[in-house]
Amino acid sequence: MNPFRWSFRKQFLLGFACCAALLGYAFYVQFHLRIQPCPFCIFQRIAFAALGLVFLVGGLAAPRSQGARKAWSLLALVPAVVGIGYAGRHSWVQLYPPEMPSCGPGLNFMLERQSWLGVARKVLMADGDCSNINWQFLGLSMPMWCLLWFLALAAWALLAGFRRR
Predict the structure, then answer these.
(1) What sign does the CA torsion over 132, 112, 80, 157 have?
(2) Taking the CB of residue 10, how many other CB atoms lie within 10 A of it?
(3) Of 23, 36, 71, 142, which is the most exposed, with the fewest CB atoms less than 10 Å away?
């Protein structure tokens, strides 16, 4: 059975399952392997959760019209592009670490003092510990894998929404 020929519903529910599995693995790494996430990691998790939510609701709605499927596909693209931005920036920080050895205050502290937009801006200017590579698979760090997954899921959403039925 060719997954590229599946219904919109099946394709979107598979996208949800991928996001749920990726988040599950992130929590496994945090709580079982005891590798603590940095602020970049937290924002990537939020992007995966938002993308998964769009996949789930879109899959359950299973729109019949081509226009509605395109709209759901473009809606899924929003958290995917945000995730691509965070994962890409995190990968960049790991490849070209800044000279400052600190990632700054914790995420909870920053949220108490600033708005979400201010915290997001602060995280994007990351320095130090965010550049540590604590986990690798096939020579790629976790943010690099996240970047690949965000790209793949964005392409999957576009395929589901823009494929002729």
Answers:
(1) positive
(2) 15
(3) 36
